Each structure stands twice: as structure tokens, then as C-alpha cells.
Amino acid sequence: MTRTVLLFGDSNTHGTMPMPDLGFGGRFDREDRWAGRLARLLTGWEVIAEGHPGRTTVHDDPVEGAHRNGLTVLPALLESHKPLDVVVVMLGTNDLKERFSVNACDIALSLERLVRVILASDCGPGNGAPEVLLVAPPPIVEVGCLAGMFAGGAAKSVALAAEIAAAAKRVGVPFLDAGEVVAVSPIDGIHYDAPANPALAEAIAAAIRAHFPG
């Protein structure tokens, strides 16, 4: 029986390429994105990639639009794709933008809120709740065309993994630190270069097999 995993993320789940300038809109080919690679690695799973560039955890973005609020769209996505066996949540990078003025602890608390929404839903098999894998994004670097937008975010991002790991423990879901597997591109300090895609796909596939053997 095929199981289903929803990847709930931002531009790095979408497959956005490192940006040499703000007008750049490059995206990795479907088969090259880590989500596409994950689908090939997970035999017996349907992989749904739901990555939205600019998506935050719980914040309406005053510059890029309120529709980038992850908390707002999450219930609809859960319902539209139900039944979901697993939801992989990898967000928090966009919360590091200077415009939001939040620290690593608050970002982790926001992720905890998202996980609690998933666990309280009836969008899993048999109208139960899906299981969740919470993934901490890698630390960012303030460089290139996105440096001003993320001013002050690099220092905050170093503390993210520990705070998100603590949040995962509080809600009782497994945790993966993507920063142990991939690093951001030196081009824009936010997105991943091509070699990160197979590495992240392998790590997430291994975590799904280990924590949700079926």
C-alpha cells in the first residue's frame, strides 16, 4: 500500500537556485530537486512537494504578501492531500529576515505551533493525525543580493538547530538537523547549490525509513 509524505517548506523545498540578483527566478529541474530525488529513493511512497518561496512559519509578510504565512495555509494543504502518513516540516529561514524581528527561540516556538496543528488534525490515515518529521534548516550567511534582507539573521540562525531540536522534543516528534548534511550557497547565503540536493534527499529518506518504518 502506498504511503504519502507531504514536504511543507519554503524556497529550498520549491527548488529555488541560488540567486545572483533579486530578479533571478531559476529553479532546479524537477528530477534534480531534493524533493524529486526523495521520491525516487522512497519506494512505496507518494512524495508531495509543497514548497513556497518566502513562506514563513506564522507571519504575514508585509512586503511579499500575507499568503506566505505557513500557519494560514497549512490546514488547507493538510485537508487537500489527506490522508497523509507523514508531514516533513522544514521552515524558519524566512523568519530570519530583518523585517520580522524574531529570534531563534521564537522561530522554534512557531514551528512547534505548526507541528501541533498537524498533530491535532484528522488528516492522517483513518482520520487520525499524520506523523511529523521536524527539520532544522542550515545556518544562513549574509552575502550577495539577499544580505540586506536577512541583515542580522546569520547570528540568529546558528542557534536555530538547538532550539528546533528542543521544540521537537517538546511535541514528541523526530528531528533532523539539515545543517549537518548541507550548507547554503556562497552566492546568496540562503539557497542550496546543486550538490546539496542528493545529500539532503538521502538524509531525509534515511530519517523517514528510520522513524516511520510502516
Summarize the structure.
With 214 residues, this protein is α/β, with parallel strands linked by helices.
How would you characterize this protein structure?
The protein is of the alpha/beta class. Helix content is 34%, strand content 13%. It is built from 7 helices and 5 strands. The chain has helices spanning 11-14, 34-41, 70-81, 104-119, 153-157, 160-171, 196-211, and strands at 3-9, 45-51, 86-90, 131-136, 175-177. A 5-stranded parallel beta sheet has the order 2-1-3-4-5, with helices on both faces. α4 (104-119) links the parallel β3 and β4 (131-136).
Global geometry: globular
Number of domain units: 1
Average pLDDT number: 98
CATH topology: Rossmann fold
Major beta sheet, strand line-up:
2-1-3-4-5
Features:
five-stranded parallel beta sheet, alpha/beta, globular, 5 strands, Rossmann fold, 214 residues, 7 helices, single chain
